[in-house]
Specification:
The structure holds two protein chains of two kinds.
Chain A lengths: L16 E2 L2 E2 L2 E4 L5 E9 L12 E6 L2 E7 L15 H7 L6 H22 L3 H15 L4 H17 L1 H7 L14 H16 L14 E2 L2 E2 L6 H13 L4 H11 L9 E2 L5 E2 L1
Antiparallel strand pairs in A: 1-2, 3-4, 4-5, 5-6, 7-8, 9-10
Helix pairs in contact in A: 2-3, 2-6, 2-8, 3-4, 4-6, 6-8, 7-8
Chain B lengths: L2 E2 L4 H19 L6 H10 L10 H19 L7 E2 L6 H21 L4 H32 L4 H6 L6 H4 L1 H14 L23 H26 L10 H22 L5 H29 L1
Parallel strand pairs in B: 1-2
Classes of the chains: A alpha+beta, B mainly alpha.
InterPro entries (chain B): NADH_UbQ_OxRdtase_su1/FPO
Subcellular location (chain B): Cell membrane; Membrane
Membrane topology (chain B): Multi-pass membrane protein
């Protein structure tokens, strides 16, 4: 039965099939055993998964041996990427207030936070984050939002179980999302608290630098591209639950990658 | 001594457990009540995955509630249990291990990756929680110098074991959550794996499996009462009332715990369980052994 992995290009030509399904072929695992390799696509739709993302995983047991990001299909979007909209509009020369941008950024981080907490299995906190996101987008004022968001932020910062779960997961040495999943979470919390103070600010957004929730939007490359590029290395060798946490802690927004029409009619991206 | 219950109790036991599980699910802040969900699952058509091992899935899903009910056979209600076996604690432990098999079979059977991962996860979870758990329940047996659940209750007529074996009690509460793969230990049926072991179940299969999990949670919580909380002992009220009250208190704590803590990853918990919990459980057993010898 053992044909080995060499030279088959990762597919199961010689293994026969059961009920029309190919058998898993074995390969060496990290502990020096030979285990079945399962080729499993993750996405495009899973609970708390970045919409549209497809990862091709090679699993041994529940450990990810290899991961590839499927090329993102690019349907023409009808509008600018939702989470980057204020900055894209500012880029097109429209007047955008600081408060408007802060509100969108804060909501974007709460959205990511809800997804990460959902994957971390903390549904109570995830629901609170989503509730706060919805009332932010619904236009609630600062005085109404702060008493809702602050206690959640405090609880998340203090939770040693959350730290224990996320510390050391998906460590990236450099880059805009350096650190581990927990430090990325803390960065979101910092940004949320910072932006929350500015949601009612009516000054005009400065023309540069235009930093959206996931990074600079005015450099030509969508910031989520670098997040996607980081995924395969971070996922290789991760246990399945860690892999989900890593994806959620980076939370790439595939909307950014679609070729987009700016509000002014100029093509972008 | 715990008296044997009349024979009809055998028939009543599952019904009582289902009622208790129903009440717990109703009280749980996160659920909208089990009624609608149960009806939905009863009429839902069963989906079957390609090349699924159907007998295995059926066996697994049926085994889970059966294991819970069998474990409850040694559970004293007040001072009566269906069967006060001379080694009731071992029986309880064995039935709980039967639940491991149930979840693993349910995860393996559908020939689907995410449910398979759920099955793997429960085995990893078992390896992580079982060692300190066994030490904790053995400590209670040691304190009573008997593996008979009735004797453990009798030994607590003066002082509850929870008072002088707090470590064993704490570890038992953790493992009660873990054996019902619930709350912070729900990774085997985790959202991140689209429901894990339960991911491919539908209709009656799903009802049996998830209902079985509620039963297991109730039984695991209820077993803390004879082991550590003095069973039916208490002032004024009759024994059965104390059992109900104490069980409700433990269940209330477990429901609350789920809201406060995210899901624990077993590779991390394994470290805690083997490096911290196991040694302190051994130390606790040692303390109890010395007290028993000196008595």
């Amino acid at each position: 039965m053992d044909h080995g992995a060499m030279g088959h290009g990762g597919h199961e030509h010689h293994m026969g099939a059961v009920a029309g399904l190919p058998m898993a072929e074995r390969a060496d695992d990290r502990d020096g055993l030979r285990l079945d390799r399962l080729h499993v696509p993750l996405g495009p739709a899973l609970p708390d998964w970045p919409a549209g993302l497809v990862l091709r995983l090679e699993l041994q047991g529940d450990v990810v041996r290899r991961a590839e990001v499927d090329p993102v299909p690019t349907p023409s979007a009808s509008g600018p990427a939702f989470w980057n909209e204020p900055w894209l509009r500012a880029m097109a020369g429209e007047p955008v207030t600081v408060g408007e941008a802060a509100r969108r950024q804060c909501a974007a981080h709460l959205d990511s936070l809800g997804r990460l907490l959902g994957v971390a299995g903390w549904s109570d906190a995830a629901e609170r984050a989503r509730g706060a996101r919805d009332s932010l987008l619904g236009g609630a004022g600062r005085d109404e939002l702060v008493p809702r968001v602050r206690p959640l932020m405090r609880r998340l910062r203090r939770s040693w179980t959350l730290r224990w779960l996320l510390a050391g997961v998906g460590v990236q040495a450099r880059g805009p999302v350096g650190g581990d999943a927990h430090s990325r979470l803390i960065a979101w919390l910092d940004a949320i608290e910072h932006d929350l103070g500015a949601v009612d600010d009516s000054e005009r957004l400065p023309a540069r630098p235009l930093r959206g929730p996931r990074g600079r939007v005015d450099t030509g490359t969508p910031p989520s591209q670098s997040l996607l590029d980081a995924l395969p290395d971070l996922l290789a060798g991760a246990e399945f639950a860690c892999a989900r946490l890593i994806v959620a802690s980076l939370d790439p927004d595939l909307d950014e990658l679609a070729p987009q029409q700016l509000p002014g009619g100029h093509g972008h991206g | 001594m715990v008296d044997p219950a009349p024979l009809w109790a055998v028939a009543v036991l599952p019904a009582v457990l289902v009622l208790a599980a129903w009440a717990t699910a109703t009280v749980d802040a996160r659920s909208t009540g089990p009624g609608r969900e149960v009806l939905r699952l009863l009429v839902q058509q069963r989906r079957i995955t390609r090349a699924a091992d159907i007998p295995l899935v059926r066996l697994g899903t049926t085994l889970l509630p059966v294991a819970a009910v069998l474990a409850a056979a040694v559970l004293p209600f007040g001072f009566r249990s269906v069967s006060d076996l001379p080694d009731g604690i071992v029986w309880f432990n064995a039935m709980e291990a039967l639940a491991w098999a149930a979840v693993w079979l349910t995860g393996w059977g559908p020939n689907s990756t995410l449910s398979l991962i759920g099955g793997y996860r429960f085995l990893a979870q078992g390896l992580a929680y079982e060692l300190p758990h066994m030490l904790a329940i053995t400590t209670a047996a040691l304190g009573a110098e008997s593996l008979r659940v009735g004797a453990v209750v009798d030994a607590q007529s003066g002082l509850w074991f929870a008072v002088w074996m707090p470590v064993a009690f704490g570890i038992y509460l953790l493992s009660a959550l873990a054996m019902a793969f619930w709350g912070p230990f729900d990774q085997p049926a985790g959202v991140d794996a689209a429901g894990g072991a339960a991911g491919e179940l539908s209709g009656v299969d799903r009802l049996l499996f998830l209902g079985g999990r509620w039963l297991l949670l109730v039984v695991a919580a209820a077993f803390a009462v004879p082991l550590f909380l003095g069973g039916g002992h208490g002032p004024l009220l009759p024994g059965w009332a104390w059992t109900v009250l104490k069980t409700a208190a433990v269940l209330g704590f477990l429901l609350w715990a789920r809201r406060r803590v995210p899901t624990l990853r077993m590779e991390r918990y394994m470290e805690l369980a083997w490096v911290v919990l196991t040694p302190i459980a051994v130390a606790q057993a040692l303390v109890v052994a010395v007290v028993v010898l000196a008595r």
